[in-house]
Amino acid sequence: MNFPKETRSYCPKCKSHQIMKLSIYKAGKRRGMAEGERRHALRKKGYGGQKFPKLAKPAKTTKKITLIETCTTCKKKMMNKGIRIRKFELVAV
């Protein structure tokens, strides 16, 4: 699905509708020294193998795309869950 790069949406900081730049959220690099990451590695260690069973077939075929809206006037960023879709593309209109 093609989606416009810019849309008019409500900005809570400006308290009015403004032109928003849209971008797709991408998760950052995972920290190996984070508590959960260390705990997971510890439980996987040894003869036990995987901490929880690996799914042979995932339940869902698509993921929800999280959109980041950036206000062009005040530069405030808002995140909102997008739609569940296979192919998502931002297009200049």
Question: Can you describe this structure?
Answer:
The chain has one helix at residues 35-44, and strands spanning 2-4, 6-11, 16-24, 63-71, 77-85, 89-91. The protein has a domain at 1-26 and 61-93: Nuclear Transport Factor 2, Chain: A. By secondary structure, the chain is mainly β. The strands form 2 sheets. It has a 4-stranded antiparallel beta sheet, with no helix packed on it. The chain has a two-stranded parallel sheet with strand order 1-6. It is built from 1 helix and 6 strands. 11% of the residues lie in helices and 42% in strands. It starts with a strand and ends with a strand.
Summarize the structure.
With 93 residues, the chain is mainly beta.
